[in-house]
Write a structure and sequence with these properties.
The chain is mainly alpha-helical. The chain is built from 19 helices and no strands. The chain is 74% helix and 0% strand.
Length: 403
């Protein structure tokens, strides 16, 4: 009976991993699966399972969530409940993962869920091209419709899948080549959809491989090959060139910087930080978004009224999880969030795959308010879960490993 329940629990958790890439299409589906996991959890969890999520890194995360909850109650920031709820979602997913013994099954489920999303998106892209007669993945509402979600989040799904494919290839023997092919497929699609921060994450991750690889010549050859392949993709994909501002060499550096929305967003965030002087407890997550909107309305350095109107209508948040914590909840929460990543790095740097997962998540949090969305919270949690699953195999080794 116990084994049957463990098998059912593994199946349900793997199903959850498979549907996370589709969260933007229906947030209720992963929520329903989590409810099932919670119901089954008491029947499958064992005392020793709790050790998986009891270290300094996790304690720091729990402290952050606890203090933010206390802050919500003390300052009566009930409008911030959704954000704090997403943080508790991260904790819930972490706890739900601890009874899992077969680590590959959830990882494979996420990979194939992401692959299904990729196939559907590719079909949407072909249909869009046939109907419009043009290939344009630079900007526009059609991009999210094609990808079935916002590009930064979908891009991170493919980055996570790329990393997991490389890891799975080291754990299997017969299908090793298949997972290298899948990793390449995820990379190609990221180049096609022009997901900038996702591509930068992979580039840095591939360069980091040189530091971990025992065969430096092989590592160098892989890096050179991928760089050559990327250059070719840049040359044939106009959207990619536009997204990286290399399609027109007439632009000055200052002009290119101002084309990036985060230039104005982070400039407004900087002004708000020094004007509010709410260094200890911040101003609240919803309040900061409102203050950003006011900043967009009153700024005088937009290129024209059209650009300013775009910012006002878009209601951009801080687009940086670190800045979001700093402005919304104060310096202490900001520092705890940074300490969380530092401890994660200290604990998992020995594993190459855990390291690149951590690196990708830091970059993701540097350009998006990841934890303000349910899908962001789910991806944050799964990154931590997969990293823990991988690093548990090398935590007793003293040297960096490719495991």
């Amino acid at each position: 009976m116990k084994k049957n329940l463990e098998y059912i629990y593994l199946t349900v958790f793997s199903l959850f991993c498979a549907v996370v890439p589709f969260t933007d299409l229906g947030e209720a589906i992963p929520n329903i699966i989590l409810i099932v996991l919670i119901a089954l959890f008491p029947f499958v969890v064992q005392k020793q399972n709790w050790r998986k999520i009891l270290d300094k890194r996790f304690y720091t995360l729990y402290l952050l969530v606890f203090l933010l909850t206390i802050q919500l109650v003390i300052f009566k920031r009930w409008e911030d409940f959704k954000f704090v709820n997403n943080l508790w979602l991260v904790v819930l997913i972490l706890i739900s993962s601890i009874p899992i013994k077969n680590k590959l099954v959830p990882i494979l489920s996420f990979i194939y869920g992401s692959l299904a999303l990729l196939v559907i998106s590719a079909i949407n892209l072909v249909i869009h091209y046939k109907l419009s007669g043009q290939f344009n993945m630079t900007v526009g509402d059609h991009v999210s419709s094609i990808l079935l979600g916002d590009r930064p989040y979908i891009g991170y799904v493919y980055v996570l899948s790329f990393c997991m494919c490389l890891y799975v290839a080291t754990q299997v023997s017969k299908a090793k080549f298949l997972y290298y092919i899948l990793a390449l497929l995820f990379l190609i699609f990221l180049l096609i959809i022009s997901a900038r921060i996702s591509l930068i994450s992979i580039i840095i991750g591939v360069l980091a491989y040189f530091c971990y690889a025992k065969n430096r010549k092989k590592a160098g050859l892989i890096i050179i090959t991928l760089c050559f392949f990327s250059v070719v993709m840049f040359s044939i994909n106009p959207s990619l060139k536009k997204r990286f501002f290399i399609s027109n060499t007439n632009y000055s550096i200052e002009q290119m910087v101002k084309f990036e929305p985060r230039y104005f967003i982070w400039s407004c965030a900087n002004d708000i930080f020094f004007q509010n002087k709410s260094y200890l407890a911040g101003s609240g997550f919803v309040n900061i978004n409102n203050e950003l909107e006011n900043c967009y309305v009153n700024r005088l350095d937009f290129a024209d009224e059209k650009q300013q109107d775009f910012f006002v209508r878009s209601k951009f948040n801080t687009h940086n999880q670190f800045i979001n914590f700093l402005l919304s909840s104060g310096v202490l929460m900001f520092l705890i969030f940074i300490i969380f990543f530092v401890l994660w790095l200290k604990l998992d740097y020995k594993s190459y795959y855990s390291f690149i997962l951590l690196l990708s998540l830091i970059l993701f949090c540097s350009v998006e308010n990841v934890l303000t969305r349910q899908m962001g919270g789910e991806l944050f949690a799964l990154t931590l879960v997969f990293s823990t699953m991988i690093s548990s195999k090398v935590q007793n080794h003293n040297k960096p490993s490719l495991k």
